[in-house]
Amino acid sequence: MWFRRDLRLDDNPALHAAAAAADGRVICLYIRETIEHGRAMGGASKWWLDKSLKSLQQDLEAIGGTLILRTGTAQAVLDDVIEESGAEAVFWNRRYEQPERDADAAIKAHLKDQSIQVESFNGSVLTEPWTQKTGSGGYYKVYTPYWRAVQENFTCPDRKPAPESLSAPTLASDDLDDWALHPSNPDWSEGFDEPWSPGETGAKDRLSQFLDGPVSNYDDDRNRPDLARGTSGLSPHLAFGEISPVQIWRATQSKIDADEINEKSARVFLSEIAWRDFSYVLLYHNPDLATENYKADFDLMPWRDTDEDLQAWQKGLTGYPIVDAGMRQLWHTGWMHNRVRMIVASFLTKHLLIHWSHGEDWFWDTLVDADPASNSASWQWTAGSGADAAPYFRVFNPITQGEKFDESGDYVRKWCPELKKLPRKYLYQPWEADPATLDKAGITLGETYPHPIVEHKSGRQRALDAYETLKERRDAA
């Protein structure tokens, strides 16, 4: 069993099939590939991987198995393990990035040439990217009809329970600590331990806690970053396959059927799970989604190239508290609330007029839930260059967004503690406070908290003007 981003035992189609085929005699292998097929994992994701592999090792040992860690090219490592063990078959769950698909196809052909059986499965999406088709036979480029099709066509497969026991020959394995997966220069991961419990048990616990209450208010609370349990927090567990969207769907539907949760709110939650699938549809059919504009028109956008503004955004020093709070939450926890992700992405691409790929790169490195499909699709959606995207002229107002969604002010006060004594009236626009109010709150603008790096109205107008330039260039082309 070749594990990739499917680090779980329960309801793992490839592992279940491998155990059944060999009566539990399964070598469980994870390969740190020295030739990247697809995108190299970011720093925060490596932190999660370290913890997730340790958890998987413990879970395997509890049923008599072990996790073999190897470093090298995937084909060479598989050849070595097969030769050392006499294995006759290789099982894995499919990947969907073009370079990974190409690599898997080549490995499958190579192994079959050696008379090795190879089986692959869907272990990470509700429906695979080629299955939901429009009436004309193409893929869905708009989310709403896609979601409608999923609801009409998707049937949860039967659960595939974890093996009760495993056995395998003793093989040499790398020491996980030698992989040194924590971020370095600097290691910013010290704050990750408190909010997260990587591994299959942590994933199941988080889903259970969410379905036991918060899901029933998800429709309203999901946009509230000041609420600790407004969202499920399952995204990093999904990214590493510690839980699958099928498991989430099955558990949620069971609660709906038993009339134990608010069905309307639960359906909204499931629609977000399906958005992740939709992102994989886009990535599958547009392999360069992380680097190229989905809408080619945006190649003509007059983006600004300014390291100073980009770094202020990255460090949470833009002078807009809701933006800065989000960027600091990301740095300290490896995660950011989804509503705030949209706010900070809009600010970067519109107020600062910086190409969305710079933000996508930063998120890829600093998010524990960095996902090759969701990250790029969501950034392009916010920037206006993506499929079914928000119109470019929709420019989030970072002041009113903070006032509306951080209702208590707790979110900004937590992540921008230098503003915690500021009255809520000025919390999202401290530059509007009078000198006496600022002095009482212990704030000196430009020293303890920055002035805005761009004025909202002028930043918005600059974005609209840039879009007009794009249209002029397109019409002239």
Give the tally of structural domains: 3
Got a strand count?
5
Mean pLDDT: 96
**Termini Cα gap:** 52 Å
Computed over alpha carbons, the radius of gyration is 24 Å
Provide the low-confidence segments as ranges: none
Determine the strand fraction and express it as a percent band. Answer: 5-15%
Spatial ordering of strands, largest sheet: 1-2-3
- Indicate the percent of residues in helices: 40-55%
Specify the CATH homologous superfamily of the largest domain.
Answer: DNA Cyclobutane Dipyrimidine Photolyase, subunit A, domain 3
CATH class category label of the largest domain: Mainly Alpha
Q: Based on helices, strands and strand pairing, what is the structural class?
A: mainly alpha
Number of helices: 20
